[in-house]
Every structure is written in C-alpha cells, then in structure tokens.
Amino acid sequence: MRRLSIFGATGSVGEQTVDLILRAGGPRTYRTVAVTGGQNVTRLAQIARELRAEIAVTADPARLDDLRTALRGSETQAAAGPAAMLEAADRPADWVMSAIVGAAGLAPGFRALRHGSTLALANKESLVTAGPLLLAEAARHGARILPVDSEHSAIFQALGADPVDRVERMILTASGGALRDWPLDRLAQATVADAGRHPNWAMGQRITIDSASMFNKAMEVIETREFFGIDPARIEVVIHRESIVHSMVAFRDGAVMAHMGSPDMRHAIGYALNWPERLSLPVAPLDLPALGRLTFEAPDEARYPALPLAREAMRIRGLAGAAFNAGKERALDHFLAGRIGFMAMAGVVEAVLTTLSSDGSLQNDARALEDVLAMDHLARIRADEAVAAGAAAR
Ligand code: NDP
Ligand code: MG
Predict the structure, then answer these.
(1) What pLDDT, in 10s, does the model give residues 115-134?
(2) How far apart are the first and last CA of the chain?
C-alpha cells in the first residue's frame, strides 16, 4: 500500500488533497503516515481519524493538549512544534504533500526528500527561497519533485518529454486578482476584505491577497525559473481573466501548448497524486461553447509592481529569493494588521531588496538551509524597519 504524508493538511490545498484521498478509498487505498496543521487542531484530529494517520503534528506546542484531547481513543499519536514536524518528515513515505503556507514549509519538505520519495510541492516558497538547494537535495537522494502550483503543473504537463532548450517561452497566466478592475489611484485604499475576494479560485487568505497584488505571480515567475531552469527573459506573464488556460509553453518552432481546465486545484493535486497515471478526478468538465471566449492582456506593471521586483530578485539571485519572500510575507502581515496600505507592500519589499543588496549580503549563494533561514530572519527585520520608517507616510 502506498504510504503518504500531508504537511499543511488543514489548509486549502491540504483539504483538497484529503478530499481526493478519501474519494479514492482513504485508508483502504493509502496508508497515511503523518498529517500536520497549525492552529486548527480540531480539524487536524478529524482528518487524522478519517485517514487513520500514524501521527498528527500541530506546529504550535500550545495546541498540543487540545490535539491530544481531540485524538483520544484514535490510533493516531499527537505531537507538536518544529522538531516534531521534522520528525514526521523523517518517517518514510512514498508521496509527501508539501502544503504548509510560507517559509515554514521549507524545512519539512526538504527533510522529506531524504527518503527519496515523491514530493508534491504546493509550497512555492521552497523553490523561491531555496530552489538550487532543494533540487540538489532531491537529486542527491533520487527523490522526485512534482509541481502542484497550477501554473507549474500546467507547464510540466505541456512540456511533456521535451527538454527545456526547445522552449522559446513559458507563459504564466494570471487572473489579475480581486482588484483587477479598480482604478489605479484607488488601489492604495483597498482593504483586506477587498483584496481577499478572488474572482475565480477558492484559496487560502494569504495567497488570495497575494493574487490581488500579483506577489503570487511574481513568486511563480521565480518558481518557474528555479524549477524548470529557464532564463528569466523567457518567462512571460499574461492576464487571463477566465482562469481556464492554466499556463502555456511556447516551443521554438512556434507551437504553443496550453493546459486548460476548470479552475479547480484538484486538477493539479490529483495529477501529482496519480502521476504518472491519469485517473479520473472530481472536476467539472470544460464546456467550451458555454465559455464562449478566452481573453489575454499584458499586465500593467504600475498596477502590479511585484512583477518588476521579482525580475530584480532574479537578477541578483543568490539569497535574493529568500529576502523577496520574507519581505513579502512580513509586508502582508503588516497589511493584514492594518499598519500599511495595499500598494505599500511592494514598497516594503523594494526597501528590503535595496537595503540588503547594498551591503552585499544578498549576492551570496546559499550553501545550506541555514543560510536561507538566516536571510529569511534578516529580511523580516528589514521589512519591519521599513514599515516603522515609512508607515506614517502611507
Ligand atoms: P492555507 O493558509 O489555506 O493553509 C496553510 C496550512 O499550513 C494549514 O494547514 C495551516 O494550519 C498550516 N500552517 C500555517 N502556518 C504554519 C506554520 N507556521 N507551521 C506549520 N504549518 C502552518 O494555505 P494554502 O493551502 O492556500 O496554501 C498552501 C501552500 O500552497 C502555499 O505555499 C501556497 O502558496 C500554495 N498554493 C496554494 C494554492 C491554493 O489554491 N490554495 C494554489 C497554489 C499554491 P492551520 O490552518 O491549522 O493553522
Ligand atoms: Mg498558482
């Protein structure tokens, strides 16, 4: 029986993974090793029971007692904290879903590669912050990384067996997010509720706001560069309001392969779960005549300053991806807390990149995960300083 673990099981991607596993027979089909979550220990315990997981881990040690209580009488062991998270990743599994949100997802996914299993990677932060290390670790242990981000799953599928040197461009589609039709001069006033309503996809709150600012797309551009090893100049972003084309690969002979489907993450999760098979999935079939038309537009970089910032991070490379992500995560924390406006998030990330590149600390390559985590820590401090220095003006 295939053994699997789900990191971030209580989140949006995690829940959809659990849904697919249950539909496929749950514990009759798969042996679940570990499931992990953060604050929502009630739901984590339910998932653990449904899948008959060996161990359930909450990231927060203060939630351990509640988790234990919720698991009473079940076959699942309870644990908490970062060390327990890594210990869960050390338990051999054939397939591991990495769906923790943020930089916290990096270490467990990295660790799971050690047993040479398949890592289904939703946590894009892993590639953005530590792409070269992650790929090297996978190669060292003969592990495989399958992309779960819908754009990268689409490109992976459109690419097929063709090597990347046959590719002229990779074209990432973006919905444009919740504020795509707002006048540019009103964006600075957008609230958390305004930015948190995605037009097409149902996702976690943080990634939904990152979609409105296109920090999500900016991260995905870096993710594309790292995962597929393509020159950043060959990565294009187009706004595609309908979210039907999930991304495209343009080959040098002019052929463009597009991956299409309804906007449902279970496409990409199911593809990674069943790979190299294609099994039927509970996703709505496309009704092309009902859709009528598909549209594409170039993004306006004044509206989406995250896009040129990602290009700057890729130009610097080294530890710039780690600084970019940490700066973005902190800027989002400050936006969620009402301390800065929507458009100020890009200003914070820009300040982080500028400050850290002036003293040369960004240009160095990461030799180990510790270098990435140290840069993550430093960039958060710089982001807080930028907010303290400029918040009143925004
Ligand atoms: P959610 O916010 O919905 O879920 C995040 C998960 O991580 C939850 O299980 C949460 O636990 C857990 N978690 C939160 N903080 C920590 C922490 N510090 N340590 C350990 N676990 C933690 O996120 P999404 O499912 O939306 O996104 C997950 C990842 O997948 C992200 O990297 C995102 O960019 C990527 N992704 C998501 C897509 C989507 O459709 N949602 C699409 C493509 C990529 P709890 O809720 O119990 O606190
Ligand atoms: Mg995506």
Answers:
(1) 989 999 999 999 999 999 99
(2) 56
Beta bridge partners of 36: 57
- pLDDT for 48-72, tens place per residue? 999 999 999 999 999 999 999 999 9
Q: How far is the centre of ligand 2, averaged over its atoms, from the C-alpha of 145 (Å)?
A: 16
Domains parsed from the chain with CATH numbers:
2-147 (3.40.50.720), 306-389 (1.10.1740.10)
**Residue 325: what residue type?**
N
Model confidence, pTM = 0.97
| Distance between CA atoms of residues 243 and 294, nearest Å | 9
Split at pLDDT 50, 70, 90, the class of 392 is very low
Residue nearest to atom 31 of ligand 1 (CA): 101
How many other β-carbons are positioned within 10 Å of the β-carbon of residue 359?
8
User: Does the CB atom of residue 226 touch ligand 1 within 6 A?
Assistant: no
Q: How many CA atoms lie within 13 A of 238 on its CB side?
A: 18
The mean pLDDT of 149-155, rounded to a whole number, is: 98
Check if 265 has its Cβ closer than 6 Å to any atom of ligand 1.
yes
If you average pLDDT over residues 386-392, what whole number do you get?
81
Q: How far apart are CA 99 and CA 121, in angstroms?
A: 7
